[in-house]
Prior knowledge:
It is found in: Lipid droplet. The protein is α/β, with parallel strands linked by helices.
Amino acid sequence: MIFTTSKLTYKAYTYKTRSSPIKITTKTIDLVPDSQSPSSFVAPPGKILIKVNYVALNPFDTKLYSMAIWPISTNSGIGRDFSGEIISIGQNTSSGFKICDLVQGIYPLFYDSQGTLSEYLLVSPRDIDIGVIPKNMSLIDAASRVTVFGTTVSISEELGFKGKKVLILGGGTSVGRYLVQLTHQFQAKEVVVTCSGRTQTTIENLGADKIIDYTKHENLVTPILDSVKETGSFDYIIDCYGGNQLFPKIKTILTRNGSYYTLAGDYPGSSFKKVLWSMIKVNLRQVWSKMGLLGYKYKFVQFIRFEKDLMKKSLELLETGKFETFIDSVYPFDQLDQAIEKLESGKTSGKVVVEVAKE
Ligand SMILES: NC(=O)c1ccc[n+]([C@@H]2O[C@H](COP(=O)([O-])OP(=O)(O)OC[C@H]3O[C@@H](n4cnc5c(N)ncnc54)[C@H](OP(=O)(O)O)[C@@H]3O)[C@@H](O)[C@H]2O)c1
């Protein structure tokens, strides 16, 4: 894209703290004269300019907002996952990308003045994880997969599912749907999944061997112990929704030296109190686990960035076309409130996406 003025004015969502609203603000990027053609302007040296098309919301976005107290947050952007197009590359920028590349990415800086719910992103390549979208993938699909698929691939890389008995709590979540597919495709011995009746058929079709409908059990321990009686203890428990019901019986449910990974901690939800208590509990349990006091490995998964070659691996897996994507709804840029309301309803079937600009 050729810019004929040095100032690029655009809209982005920002908030000051959790007690102020998330609202659209007008921002400006200062471009610099192009050395080849001084009457046109490009991104500053060392930076790339991305035009954002789609942003998938994550519960993490609203958790960050609900924890945004002064002075941790004074003027923060919102949104992490995105897809879009590289429209300008500044001089001396070694990014490996070229103009017009369609990319997906994750913006990993918390409480930064920039978030991805923004018409443009001006970034240093080292501050951001981006990858070129495979040709068979739309920009909307790409945005909806970034964090959730990346998280499940990182767990799969660490644990390895072949021949293991796996319990997935909250298989109906966006992240859980990919985990069911990965455990099945990577030949887990048995995949037991909790989800509601409305999602049961979908999860079975993705490869789950057994479903436990969480709406029919006040406490999940009983049906899970039934599975242990039938086919033995679990090698892995991966909690994609949040909870702590299994801990009183964990030594029967998990094999010795098995692994309990949680993505959401002890208390589901994004309120300040729930997130804080969850953080306290998971950190204590992680310390006990490291000290060898639990008899199993406990980990709170924190997928912040694509480490090493994880972006490449996750894009290669997606390129196989073997993974089904679930998009619950797409909201226009000016309807973020409604999109957040839907995200927090607990009744989504896949990702809630915001369209910043049409593909
Ligand atoms: N730590 C990390 O790195 C990381 C990365 C990604 C996500 N996460 C966390 O993982 C969690 C899920 O994220 P997401 O985006 O995948 O969620 P999501 O798509 O918004 O989850 C919505 C789903 O939650 C399910 N659900 C509602 N109540 C449930 C219950 N009591 N038990 C089990 N499932 C229930 C529903 O499935 P049914 O249709 O079955 O009712 C619903 O479809 C969030 O807390 C998120 O912050 C963490």
